[in-house]
Design brief:
The chain has 2 domains: about 10-210, Rossmann fold (3-Layer(aba) Sandwich); about 210-264, no CATH class. The longest helix has 15 residues, at about 210-225. The protein is α/β, with parallel strands linked by helices. The strands form 3 sheets. It has a 7-stranded mixed beta sheet with strand order 5-4-3-6-7-11-8, with helices on both faces. Helices cover about 35% and strands about 25% of the residues. The chain has 9 helices and 11 strands. Strand 1 and strand 2 (about 15-20) form a beta hairpin.
Length: about 260
């Protein structure tokens, strides 16, 4: 049996086969004390399942979703080698863009994975994460950050501006518990198949209990703020809040509103 969490450092061998493992993400370590024991957690784009397996060891039930079959196999072998509480992390193959849950989870995680899809798709995944979260539940995100010109150079990868995640969640009426993002311009590494950044934004946010009422209030507030100075930011909040109403009924209109908001 492999000890935890010390096994999640570098590479271990189990039954003669290499087992690649990492440490849990820092934002997940920060958020775990906020979860009631036995919480039901969705890990989106879970990779090798490190975060989910860590949370399982803390007494939570985890549903980990990962598209890459090699990562899935490695993650399942980690769970098998650890045994015990680790088995509460169920790893299944799936695409984060196909999420279809409705207020089922106490927390939804996406760490170091949103950069693998285009920015409009990342906005949709974030919306689906919020839909999958129970009222009062958490979203826990670690995402790559970049300047707008850097995003323009890499349109197929979702790179967020420094405070963008915080703005998105506040506009949707969520309470931002913790947000960390670099203030300086970060250096992008273009050598790999996907971008690498010098730093990432980390967010922990809580879903309001009365989602619809809060959203309606936000829309009214944004409309009023649009009449005041510095209306660009107010207009951006209004567009993001309005877009949520069209996600299911008119996806094309949803995309148009989100693109307009991103351009402000």
């Amino acid at each position: 049996m492999i000890s935890f969490p010390h096994s999640f450092e570098g590479q271990t061998t189990v039954e003669g086969a290499p087992l690649v493992a990492d440490r849990p993400d820092g934002v997940v370590l920060d958020a775990e004390p906020l979860l009631a024991r036995g919480s039901y957690v969705l890990d989106v784009g879970s990779g090798r399942g490190t975060n989910g397996t860590y949370l399982a060891f803390q007494g939570h039930k985890v549903h980990s979703l990962e598209l890459n079959s090699d990562y899935l196999e490695n993650g399942r072998r980690i769970i098998g080698a650890l045994g015990g509480l680790a088995t509460a992390n169920t790893m299944v193959q799936g695409d984060m863009r196909d999420l279809n849950f409705r207020e089922e989870f106490d927390a939804v995680i996406a760490t170091r994975t949103l950069q693998l899809i285009a920015k409009p798709e990342a906005y949709q995944v974030i919306h689906k994460m919020r839909e999958a979260t129970k009222p009062g539940g958490l979203n826990i995100i670690n995402a790559f950050v970049a300047e707008p010109d850097q995003q323009a150079e890499m349109p197929n990868f979702a790179l967020f501006e420094h405070s963008e995640l915080k703005t998105l969640y506040k506009a949707a009426g969520w309470g931002v518990i913790s947000f960390k993002s670099p203030n300086e311009r970060v250096k992008l590494d273009y050598t790999g198949a996907v971008p690498g950044c010098g730093s990432k934004a980390q967010l922990i946010a809580r879903k309001p209990v009365a989602t619809e009422t809060v959203q309606q209030a936000l829309i009214a507030q944004a409309k009023l703020s649009a009449l005041l100075p510095n209306s660009n930011e107010a207009r951006k909040r209004e567009l993001i809040a309005l877009a949520q109403n069209y996600y299911r009924s008119d996806p094309e209109h949803y995309d148009d509103l989100m693109e307009e908001a991103a351009a402000l």
